[in-house]
Amino acid sequence: MGIGFMIFGLTILGVYLGFHNWPFERSLILCVMILLLLTNLVFQMTPCYIRDEYECCRIAFYSLTVAISLGLALSGRFYFGTEEEITDFYGTLQLSFFYLFLGFIFYLKKVPECIPSLNKY
Fold first, then answer.
1. For a surface tag, which of 12, 44, 52, 95 has the fewest beta carbons within 10 Å of its beta carbon?
2. How many domains, the chain?
3. Domain residues for 96?
4. pLDDT per residue over 69-81, tens digit each?
Protein backbone atom coordinates (compact mmCIF):
# COMPACT_ATOMS: atom_id res chain seq x y z
CA MET A 1 0.00 0.00 0.00
CA GLY A 2 2.94 2.30 0.68
CA ILE A 3 4.08 2.16 -2.93
CA GLY A 4 0.65 3.17 -4.15
CA PHE A 5 0.43 6.05 -1.70
CA MET A 6 3.90 7.23 -2.66
CA ILE A 7 3.18 7.24 -6.39
CA PHE A 8 -0.26 8.79 -6.05
CA GLY A 9 0.89 11.31 -3.45
CA LEU A 10 3.69 12.49 -5.70
CA THR A 11 1.37 12.73 -8.69
CA ILE A 12 -1.47 14.49 -6.88
CA LEU A 13 0.87 17.07 -5.36
CA GLY A 14 2.69 17.54 -8.66
CA VAL A 15 -0.57 18.05 -10.55
CA TYR A 16 -1.83 20.50 -7.95
CA LEU A 17 1.35 22.56 -8.20
CA GLY A 18 2.19 22.09 -11.86
CA PHE A 19 -1.24 22.83 -13.31
CA HIS A 20 -2.08 25.87 -11.17
CA ASN A 21 -2.59 28.08 -14.23
CA TRP A 22 -5.14 25.66 -15.70
CA PRO A 23 -7.83 25.07 -13.04
CA PHE A 24 -10.17 23.02 -15.25
CA GLU A 25 -7.44 20.64 -16.40
CA ARG A 26 -6.05 20.43 -12.87
CA SER A 27 -9.45 19.53 -11.41
CA LEU A 28 -10.07 16.91 -14.09
CA ILE A 29 -6.67 15.29 -13.62
CA LEU A 30 -6.99 15.37 -9.82
CA CYS A 31 -10.38 13.65 -10.00
CA VAL A 32 -8.98 10.90 -12.22
CA MET A 33 -5.94 10.39 -10.00
CA ILE A 34 -8.06 10.28 -6.83
CA LEU A 35 -10.35 7.74 -8.52
CA LEU A 36 -7.29 5.63 -9.39
CA LEU A 37 -6.04 5.96 -5.81
CA LEU A 38 -9.35 4.74 -4.40
CA THR A 39 -9.47 1.90 -6.94
CA ASN A 40 -5.97 0.89 -5.92
CA LEU A 41 -6.99 0.89 -2.25
CA VAL A 42 -9.99 -1.33 -2.96
CA PHE A 43 -7.80 -3.75 -4.94
CA GLN A 44 -5.18 -3.84 -2.21
CA MET A 45 -7.74 -4.66 0.46
CA THR A 46 -8.89 -7.81 -1.28
CA PRO A 47 -7.28 -10.94 0.21
CA CYS A 48 -6.17 -12.33 -3.15
CA TYR A 49 -4.19 -9.19 -4.01
CA ILE A 50 -1.24 -10.13 -1.80
CA ARG A 51 -0.87 -13.62 -3.26
CA ASP A 52 2.25 -14.29 -5.31
CA GLU A 53 0.31 -15.36 -8.40
CA TYR A 54 -1.08 -11.81 -8.70
CA GLU A 55 2.30 -10.12 -8.61
CA CYS A 56 2.17 -9.47 -12.36
CA CYS A 57 -1.13 -7.61 -11.86
CA ARG A 58 0.39 -5.45 -9.12
CA ILE A 59 3.43 -4.67 -11.27
CA ALA A 60 1.23 -3.86 -14.27
CA PHE A 61 -0.97 -1.54 -12.19
CA TYR A 62 2.01 0.30 -10.70
CA SER A 63 3.66 0.55 -14.11
CA LEU A 64 0.49 2.00 -15.60
CA THR A 65 0.22 4.47 -12.74
CA VAL A 66 3.83 5.60 -13.16
CA ALA A 67 3.29 5.87 -16.94
CA ILE A 68 0.26 8.12 -16.35
CA SER A 69 2.28 10.21 -13.91
CA LEU A 70 5.15 10.48 -16.38
CA GLY A 71 2.73 11.45 -19.14
CA LEU A 72 1.31 14.21 -16.95
CA ALA A 73 4.80 15.44 -16.12
CA LEU A 74 5.83 15.48 -19.77
CA SER A 75 2.66 17.29 -20.83
CA GLY A 76 3.23 19.84 -18.09
CA ARG A 77 6.84 20.25 -19.16
CA PHE A 78 6.34 20.54 -22.92
CA TYR A 79 2.82 21.93 -23.26
CA PHE A 80 1.56 23.66 -20.11
CA GLY A 81 4.72 24.88 -18.35
CA THR A 82 6.15 28.38 -18.56
CA GLU A 83 9.91 28.96 -18.75
CA GLU A 84 10.08 29.91 -15.08
CA GLU A 85 8.16 26.81 -14.02
CA ILE A 86 10.37 24.61 -16.16
CA THR A 87 13.56 25.90 -14.58
CA ASP A 88 12.21 25.96 -11.00
CA PHE A 89 10.01 22.88 -10.87
CA TYR A 90 10.81 20.26 -13.45
CA GLY A 91 14.37 19.46 -12.40
CA THR A 92 13.08 18.37 -9.00
CA LEU A 93 10.23 16.49 -10.66
CA GLN A 94 12.68 14.58 -12.86
CA LEU A 95 14.67 13.68 -9.76
CA SER A 96 11.52 12.38 -8.10
CA PHE A 97 10.87 10.10 -11.09
CA PHE A 98 14.42 8.79 -10.73
CA TYR A 99 13.65 8.00 -7.08
CA LEU A 100 10.42 6.28 -8.14
CA PHE A 101 12.44 4.18 -10.58
CA LEU A 102 14.89 3.18 -7.83
CA GLY A 103 12.04 2.29 -5.51
CA PHE A 104 10.43 0.22 -8.25
CA ILE A 105 13.70 -1.69 -8.74
CA PHE A 106 13.78 -2.42 -5.00
CA TYR A 107 10.16 -3.62 -5.22
CA LEU A 108 10.87 -5.89 -8.19
CA LYS A 109 14.03 -7.35 -6.62
CA LYS A 110 12.26 -7.74 -3.24
CA VAL A 111 14.96 -5.91 -1.32
CA PRO A 112 15.44 -6.26 1.69
CA GLU A 113 13.29 -9.40 1.90
CA CYS A 114 15.66 -11.28 -0.39
CA ILE A 115 18.70 -10.80 1.89
CA PRO A 116 19.12 -14.09 3.79
CA SER A 117 20.85 -12.62 6.84
CA LEU A 118 17.82 -10.39 7.48
CA ASN A 119 15.35 -13.30 7.39
CA LYS A 120 16.69 -15.07 10.50
CA TYR A 121 13.83 -13.92 12.71
1. 52
2. 1
3. 2-119
4. 888 888 888 888 8
